[in-house]
Amino acid sequence: MDVLVCIKQVPESNKVEVDPKTGALIRDGVDSKMNPFDLYALETAFRIREKLGGTVKVISMGPPQAKEVIYEAFSMGADAGALVSDRAFGGADVLATSYTLSQAIRKVGHFDLILCGKQTIDGDTAQVGSEISEYLGIPSFANVLGIDDVQKDNITVKIDLPNAIEVSKVTLPCLLCVEKDIYQPRLPSYIKKQATKDREVPMITLKDLPDSSPDRYGLHGSPTQVQRIFPPEVNNDREIFHGTSEELSKKLMNTLVERKFVGR
Fold first, then answer.
1. Cα Rg of the chain (Å, integer)
2. What is the DSSP string of 50-113?
3. Residue 164: pLDDT band by 50, 70, 90 thresholds?
4. Better pLDDT: 109 or 230
5. What does the pLDDT average to over 65-84?
6. Long-range own/partner contacts, residues 247-256 (CB < 8 A, 24 or more apart)
7. Residue 204 has what pLDDT?
8. Exposed/middle/buried for 189, CB within 10 Å: 0-12, 13-18, 19+?
């Protein structure tokens, strides 16, 4: 079975700069890591390969430095990977991102199963996986808690619904967005890291895609535009009260009233 896992490089810290013109995060030169939710998708792919054989490939969209997470996936056991990178893709919203990835997947080849993490920690929309499946015209499930059975032509999964756990069987090819802790992710292997450090990672640019119209990508292809984005404000102000329990309770009450958290 040929499995493709969508992975993403995300900022390692919430202290990132924002492009004042586009409202997009400036990712170049920022300390980054693999999106934690994608580790669970990778582990799911490895478990399926162990049962049925086949390959596990990864694909990532981002600046050239995003190759780092592809090599991290190699050190965990991925067989191959590709990076989708072009200035034309910058500033994409979830719709443009999904379309870009769907086009890149068509370019890379056919897969029996596509896996995504539940969401990314820098966007938290949890929409890209499902939108990719729509563009590819394949069924998908989100909030996948577990896999009960995998066959060559279908897969049975547990899905976390608001009021129940549903068990469903879906025909392959399909796309699954897996939940955290579906499996415990394995650690990277130093031996595999050394063995794969020179492995080629092809870069897919706009001109390589089946649809190379620039109007479908990046800011041009994004129907939603960010009006304002900013890192969370850090407030370390504090006030320490001293006194008896009765004095402390009065001081605390007076402070809450003065700041209008409560009324008299």
1. 22
2. HHH--EEEEEEESSGGGHHHHHHHHHHT--EEEEE--GGGTT--HHHHHHHHHHHHHHH---SE
3. very high
4. 109
5. 96
6. none
7. 97
8. middle
- Other residues' Cβ atoms within 10 Å of the Cβ of residue 78: 25
By the 8 A CB rule, do 169 and 154 touch? yes
Q: Where are the domains of the chain?
A: 2-216
Does the pLDDT of residue 124 top 80, yes or no? Answer: no
Token digits of residue 1: 């079975």
Which residues have C-beta within 8 Å of that of residue 29, sequence separation ≥ 6? 65
Write down the pLDDT at residue 60.
Answer: 97
Residues present in the chain in total:
264
Give tens-digit pLDDT for 170-212: 999 999 999 998 999 999 999 999 999 999 999 999 999 999 9
Nearest to 169 by CA among 189, 181, 155, 180: 155
How is residue 18 annotated by DSSP? B
235 confidence band (pLDDT: 50, 70, 90) = confident
Cα–Cα distances (Å) from 242 to 236, 257, 262, in that order, read 19, 19, 22
pLDDT greater than 80 at residue 149: yes
Residues paired with 158 in a beta bridge: 146, 167
CATH number for the region 2-216 comes to 3.40.50.620
Q: For 155-184, give one letter per residue: b (16+ CB within 10 A) or e.
A: bebbbeeeeeeeeeebebbbbbbbbeebbe
Are 175 and 114 contacting, i.e. CB atoms less than 8 angstroms apart?
Answer: yes
Measured distance CA(100)–CA(102) in Å, rounded: 5
